[in-house]
DNA sequence: GTCTATATACCGATAGAC
DNA sequence: GTCTATCGGTATATAGAC
């Protein structure tokens, strides 16, 4: 998928809360007591939407099930038909978010061979994903520390997997003589840090009216220069205007 | 302060928990009911040490005052002689950490004139500070969202102040023709993101045996290349060995 | 499937003995 | 200055009516 921008990205991949909830229902029929798919998906959407918003506002820990009750419009008893407890809800959301990110990242890269293009695509896909699923990314990052032993291990594994994608691209580019650096893992680590800043410091970029396309172009130029590779059409530093909300409502 | 490394940094600046607690006692004699300085500083040190460790382990919200009681060795009633409530403790710690960082950053930069050196010093000082006060930095970052309206405003102000230091250095370098970029605030923002990665993803760098000197050298080289400025003695990419623990126990 | 009502436990905070 | 004992409030979770 070349010459990708935010709009074509959101059109190509169905990243909606409803779709995620349907995936959850189909893969977790044991822990969810409700039988009818339509009812289950509708209520799951209400629950996850409320839980995401409350978690971003005040933190998952500070969110009480009474908050979740009133925000979702469902009752206490009804909530417990969809998950076995507050902790199970946390794990459910973390798990589903991780898998979606992993799948999309592999999907966008699968038909590309040129390292410079791969790097640009991986950066853009990660930024676009976190733009589309901003609350989800913010939530996943902030609540990692509250996970239990086994779940924390999976979160770390996921972090390293994303990084490994960048390490592979960098090493390939180094071998082909288009990237210049000494330690691929260090470069991948700070690329990841810069990607994460986009959703962790969203308030800052929003206040400065910097959109996702502009940030993407800047990041690609900056890393390109640092790696000794200069993307031809981006060196001017001019970026597209802000249309960060072109892809519909954020989830 | 030129040719700064971690060891000389920690020797030059007294960044100990005891010193911070003494500052707190002297500046807050109204909210602390204890009169004798020796007693007060001793117990404050116990309290803050326990609070920092518990917050990093499970989060400030999840930490109960009973946890704090057993970890510090003091009783419930005694704790309340040192702060008026859990929220006041949070604000106290945030406030004191912010001020120390602000003061040290201004101190290290005050006698330097060359932009390239300024950039290197600012990067090193921030990394060394966060290395020395790792728990403090991690705590400050993670608990920002739990602050009240007014305190959150101060935290944001502090974030932007640190960034402004980098913006000034970058603009000066651009004017003098040694740095090349289009938007100083974007560059400063991602430099900050890379600095923060050092204390937010500490587990990763520790596992890979990357010390603070090595990370500092890498960051300076990477940003130097991206800005079109090549530090002469760092281009080889070779870095000092890991002596991240040379400066005593972390706080 | 969804609701209300309630059980049980633990939180932050304080009063008052020592 | 420091302790123990306890209050009032609220959390998660469940039982059983509809």
UniProtKB/TrEMBL annotation, chains A, B:
Keywords (A to Z) from UniProt: DNA-binding
Domain of life (superkingdom): Bacteria
DNA-binding region residue numbers: 64-83
Gene3D superfamilies xref list: Homeodomain-like, Tetracycline Repressor, domain 2
Statement: the UniProt record of this protein carries the keyword Transcription: no
Keyword Lipid biosynthesis: no
Pfam families tied to this protein: TetR_C_24, TetR_N
InterPro entries per UniProt: DNA-bd_HTH_TetR-type_CS, Homeodomain-like_sf, HTH-type_Tx_Regulator, HTH_TetR, KstR2_TetR_C, Tet_transcr_reg_TetR-rel_C_sf
Record domain HTH tetR-type: where: 41-101
Record protein name field: TetR/AcrR family transcriptional regulator
Organism: Desulfobotulus pelophilus
